[in-house]
Design goal:
8 helices; mainly alpha; about 160 residues
């Protein structure tokens, strides 16, 4: 079965009643956890972006505290997992400021992580790639935000 294009889906949805749309959304949320998480964000957390950011930061703190520091192999796996989760939450929000703020917090936690990431070339590269990515995203923001975020980036470098 071939998936319909976005335009076809949009026109078909315009012909549905509100009850049919609600049934479709509920049915969609049953199939994948990500669909349910996105629906939760859109319904409950979309209006409170600051609360959403704080809840993600709290979850990130818990994940960082749970990292197995026995070897750099386990640290790399856990840190990549945290980054994957952050990217997923950023996709839900689609807000550039949220993206920069969460990635800056991730890099800050990584920078101050103990044992130091400086002993692992892969972790240093991951950290540097994210700093470079943040710089590109900050350049697209409003001038006042650029200045604020630029100060935070300089602290991390």
């Amino acid at each position: 079965m071939k998936a319909a294009s976005l335009k076809e889906v949009k026109t078909e949805l315009s012909h549905k009643t509100p009850q049919e749309l609600m049934d479709l959304c509920l049915r969609l949320s049953r199939f994948k956890k990500e669909n349910k998480e996105l629906l939760t964000y859109l319904l409950f957390e979309f209006s409170d972006e600051e609360g959403y950011i704080e809840s993600i930061k709290a979850a990130m703190d818990l994940e960082f505290d749970a990292i197995n520091t026995d070897s750099y192999f386990y640290m790399r796996k856990s840190i990549r997992k945290i980054l994957r989760l952050i990217k997923k939450y950023i996709r839900y929000s689609q807000n550039k400021e949220t993206e920069v703020e969460l990635l800056l917090y991730f890099c800050d936690r990584l920078h101050s992580f103990s044992p130091s990431i400086k002993n692992s070339k892969a972790l240093v590269n991951l950290y540097q790639r994210n700093i470079d990515f943040i710089k590109k995203k900050v350049a697209l923001l409003h001038e006042d935000l650029q200045y604020d975020f630029q100060l935070e980036i300089e602290k991390l470098e």
